[in-house]
Amino acid sequence: MSFGLPPLKGPFEGQKELGIVTGHFGVHDSFGFGIKKVKESVEINHPLEVSEKNYALKEEKLSLAMLRNNQGLHAPMKIMAELHATRQVGRLPFLESSNLSADTIRNNDDLLDFTDFLNHPDTEERMVIPHVVMERKLGVL
């Protein structure tokens, strides 16, 4: 005898891989798949939003192309190698990097951005215990 209730067993394992995230009633199953992210379903609001998101990348590609035309292939390769080397420098997980060396290579150290005085969310101050953070990173905890 069925009362129309969903079964007690959870979704089958391959359901996420197939992209099925709805429950038995056709709505998002928050218990099985986590809270739905609204940001993924929202469309772009303004035509300039895409342009602003890709502005820094396009500007960097343009400057590297101009540098290649003026000085040859070695100059952009040297800059990209230096940027790669600055990304490889590690810090302890509880210390945030200011990326000063990467900004110096890109000549962005002289520019004032809104993140310089409004504080970027990635560099917010957090009160953490350094030993606990290191133990978690190393897998001790």
Write the SSE topology:
Layout: H1 30-33, H2 38-41, H3 47-53, H4 55-71, H5 74-88, H6 100-105, H7 114-118, H8 130-138
Protein described:
- The protein has helices spanning 30-33, 38-41, 47-53, 55-71, 74-88, 100-105, 114-118, 130-138.
- The chain contains eight helices and no strands.
- The radius of gyration is 24 Å and the shape is extended.
- By secondary structure, it is mainly alpha-helical.
- This is Unkown protein.
- One of its GO terms (biological process) is proteasome assembly.
- One of its GO terms (cellular component) is nucleus.
Helical coverage, percent range? 40-55%
Q: What pattern of helices and strands is seen along the backbone? A: HHHHHHHH
Residue share in β-strands: under 5%
The total beta strand count reads: 0
Poorly predicted ranges (pLDDT <50, ≥5 residues)?
none
Q: How many structurally independent domains?
A: 2
Mean pLDDT: 79
Largest beta-sheet characterization? none
Distance between the termini: 49 Å
Q: Report the principal-axis shape.
A: extended
The helix tally amounts to 8
Structural class: mainly alpha
Radius of gyration: 24 Å
Task: Based on the model shown, name its key terms.
141 residues; mainly alpha; extended; Unkown protein; chaperone; Ump1
Short description:
Belongs to the POMP/UMP1 family. This protein is mostly helical and 141 residues long. The protein is 48% helix and 0% strand.
